[in-house]
Design goal:
This protein is α+β, with helices and mostly antiparallel strands and about 575 residues long. Helices cover about 20% and strands about 30% of the residues. It has 11 helices and 28 strands. The radius of gyration is 29 Å and the shape is globular. InterPro entries: DUF7600 (IPR056021), F-box-like_dom_sf (IPR036047), F-box_dom (IPR001810).
Length: about 575
């Protein structure tokens, strides 16, 4: 993993590194493994540096949104929209070298060669005494077809097939089957020593390699190699995606591009923007995201299609750029374009009237986006959006349409989006962040702004820009509601902390909001011995409805009451 050597640095410096060192040095063995997976050329170095600049730094580690496959651990926070802060975890064998494993070298020196030998063995005829009570669909297949099938299976899967199929039981596995265990995507693809050899006793090599797991020190080195190898794949694919791409659009002056168009020109227009956990330049970058490139685009007067480019960053998909086509098939682009990973967002025979956007954010950038049309409808989503917090940016008057678009980008993805607006009499604030979906405009939420801006709101909620949670009854039909389950705990100071709310209907569908903590994954600030589950039975089919919720506050929520009534011929409270 690359280290962060910028100040303040709280983790241990790599051996031999000077305290005044700057940058993101790689562990030598990790760098060799990455280059073994795929060659990293000189141009990729700048991309790696930009990617490191784009990730928040926590205890000397770069937070890419994962836990380094267990090499780092997470603080136990799992509220909707919340992301974990990395913490150091214990490494069993910090001196293990995942690149150079002596025992592996010895195995290949003794059992491998560079003489090609396919070692194809014909399968023996099926025994007449081998009886099965069920029909075996593989009995009629020739041996070469069966061998081709097993080439796509793992050894454990082949073992299961041998136990369940007579045809596979008598199948002799040739040397090429065992050699394929070391190909990319197979059990031992991280044993790259196999690439240097074409021949040898591959079954013996496989079994000898597997036997190395019995030695603790060698097992730790193999596990660490697997860990680094599994990260080399998404890193190399990310670098490949970043090659031959530039950030399209009119450049706007920033600290990273001082020679671009002066930012004062943008002030001639009024803008509404949405982002999340944005960290400005010069501020300690421990959470959220930041942008290096500001781009502005004048949209075509008659857009006929809108496309969205996406990029995969360590198993998360982000929006990287947008492309607008007019009626003459002329393209207008902003951000990083990836034609092979592009989604059609909207297409119409007539001009598309864009009023705004719904945008799905995690704390690292834009995950998904959809268009709000002038007629009140919206497009399909592009990118990832399910169970991800969302914000809306749109014009304030019904006749407002988007003519100018501005975006802020980090090394690879979109992190802030802005549209032009007619200046109203008041300065707009950032729209509310919602989870999992944005409610319809006809719903009112009295007191929401006061709650979000409450000075007693936990600092972590403010720093992470946690969303307001909203969910309709299952399928939006209160007539099917049967039960509301509230799980809560009481803190030692008698402060009520609601964990989650579950709404269940008669057709077994559910809507749920809140924490989902697995057993034993509680923060120490909670009194885990005082957990309560309150179930409210609701006779939805019989006409019972929830009329209101009453809450009691002393700076924080300490109690609530549900008021119900019956609708129909007789009203009962």
């Amino acid at each position: 993993m690359p280290y962060d050597c910028e100040k303040p640095f709280r983790g241990p410096l790599p051996p031999g590194m000077l305290p005044e060192a700057w940058g993101y040095p790689f562990h030598a063995a990790c760098w060799k493994i990455l280059n073994t997976f795929g060659t990293v050329d000189q141009k990729d170095l700048q991309s790696i540096l930009n990617l490191c600049h784009s990730a928040p730094k926590q205890l000397g580690m770069l937070n890419w949104g994962h836990d380094y496959r267990g090499q780092a651990c997470h603080r136990l926070q799992v509220a909707p929209g919340e992301e974990n802060f990395l913490a150091w975890s214990y490494r069993r064998d910090p001196d293990a070298n995942p690149y150079s494993i002596v025992e592996l070298t010895q195995i290949f020196d003794n059992l491998a060669s560079n003489i090609f030998n396919n070692n194809f063995t014909e399968s023996e005829p099926l025994s007449k005494l081998h009886r099965f009570t069920v029909c075996d669909p593989f009995l009629g297949l020739p041996a070469d077809i069966l061998l081709e099938l097993v080439n796509h299976l793992t050894l454990s899967e082949v073992t299961l097939m041998k136990r369940s199929s007579r045809a596979f039981t008598n199948l002799v596995l040739p040397s090429r089957f065992w050699k394929n265990r070391f190909r990319l995507g197979r059990e031992f693809d991280c044993i790259f020593e196999a690439k240097k050899h074409t021949g040898g006793n591959w079954e013996s090599i496989y079994r000898a390699t597997n036997a190395l797991k019995s030695d603790r020190r060698t097992r730790n080195a193999l596990q660490l190699r697997r860990h680094v190898w599994d990260f080399s794949s998404p890193m190399y694919k990310l670098l490949q995606s970043m090659r031959q791409t530039t950030c399209d659009g009119h450049r706007v002056q920033s600290m990273f591009e001082p020679d671009a168009m002066p930012a004062e020109l943008l002030d001639q227009k009024s803008w509404s923007n949405v982002s999340r956990t944005l960290s400005p330049p010069g501020k300690l970058f421990q959470r959220g995201c930041r942008f290096f490139y500001t781009r502005m685009l004048v949209l075509p007067s008659n857009p006929s299609a809108v496309y969205v480019s996406t990029i995969d960053i360590f198993e998360r998909r982000y929006v990287s750029g947008l492309r607008f086509s007019d009626g003459n098939s002329k393209d207008f682009t902003i951000g990083f374009q990836h034609p092979r990973q592009e989604e059609l967002l909207a297409q119409q025979a007539t001009s598309i009237q864009i009023k705004g956007f719904d945008v799905a954010f995690d704390q690292h950038g834009v995950r998904g986006i959809c268009i709000l049309f002038g007629d009140g409808t919206q497009s399909y989503w592009a990118g990832e959006y399910e169970n991800i917090p969302k914000r809306r940016v749109q014009g304030y008057a019904e006749e407002d349409t988007v003519t100018h678009l501005m975006g802020g980008f980090d090394a690879a993805k979109l992190v802030i989006i802005a549209i032009n607006r007619d200046p109203p009499s008041w300065e707009p604030t950032m729209s509310t962040l919602w989870y999992p979906e944005i409610p319809t405009p006809d719903l009112l939420f009295p007191g929401l702004d006061a709650t979000i801006n409450n000075p007693f709101r936990p600092s972590s909620s403010v720093e992470q820009d946690l969303p307001a949670c909203f969910a309709l009854f299952p399928n939006g039909d209160p007539g099917k509601l049967r039960r509301i389950i509230v799980k809560h705990r009481v803190h030692s100071k008698d402060v009520l902390k609601i964990e989650y709310v579950n709404m269940a209907s008669i057709d077994k569908s559910q809507s749920e909001l809140g924490y989902r903590r697995a057993g034993g994954r509680y923060s120490t600030e909670y009194d885990t011995s005082r957990i309560y589950v309150q179930s409210f039975l609701i006779d939805g089919p019989g006409g019972e409805r929830i009329e209101s919720f009453s809450t009691l506050w002393t700076h924080t929520l300490v109690g609530f009451e549900v008021r119900r009534r019956f609708v129909g011929p007789t009203n009962r409270n």
